[in-house]
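User: Can you help me understand a structure? I only have the sequence.
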Amino acid sequence: MGDDVFKSISQRIDGTYDEENRRIKEISDELQKLCRLYETQLRDGKENVNCYEIEQRAAESYAKSVGMWIPMSNIFDLGVPGPSGNENDTYVSPSSVFKVNNLLNSKSISGLLNKILLHNTIFPNTAYRLHGFAGYDGRSVLPVLEQERICNAQPATQIMIDTYMSAIGFIKMEKIGHYSNDIYEVWDILPRNVLVDSEGDIYVIDAEIKKI
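Assistant: Let's start by predicting it. Here is the structure, written out as tokens:
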């Protein structure tokens, strides 16, 4: 089954996720530069500095400058509203699932972008694309992520998940849905976040990840 798992991983990878990872890293670096600039300007003006607010305004400015800004009034253009979770509201189109992320788990845009890069590295067959930033002018900015829609799929069983994670080099830890290797620790790999399609291929669509 291990060979089958590796085949299922490779069959949906065409190299484009490497390009998207570079793009996300470039956006993250640019946002950090803008944050430093905003912080300097605010301090020079003797205003109170709030790191979260600085990042929000930097992201809004950047998104508008590069055509990635999505007014909340246009959010339904993404697709049909789907299930909402603790961190994401979803919108479903024929080919994609868009996730409007409230940063509840990641705490910051930079933290979320870092998690996306880790996800794309470990699970490239469900790689995220940064579609844009949604919000109201001068208010909260919510990153909008895009994943390929997995059709004809259902939640995987925990046994399927354990087998898959073992095949890609992770050791099962004591807590269910929690795994690690020498580089990463991943958790919340549970049936609600993992799909299996009609051909038996496994797709981790969401996970919590950190570098060890």
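Now, to help you interpret it: Helices lie at 2-10, 16-44, 51-65, 109-122, 158-167. Residues 1-12 have pLDDT under 50 and may be disordered. Let me know which part you'd like to focus on.
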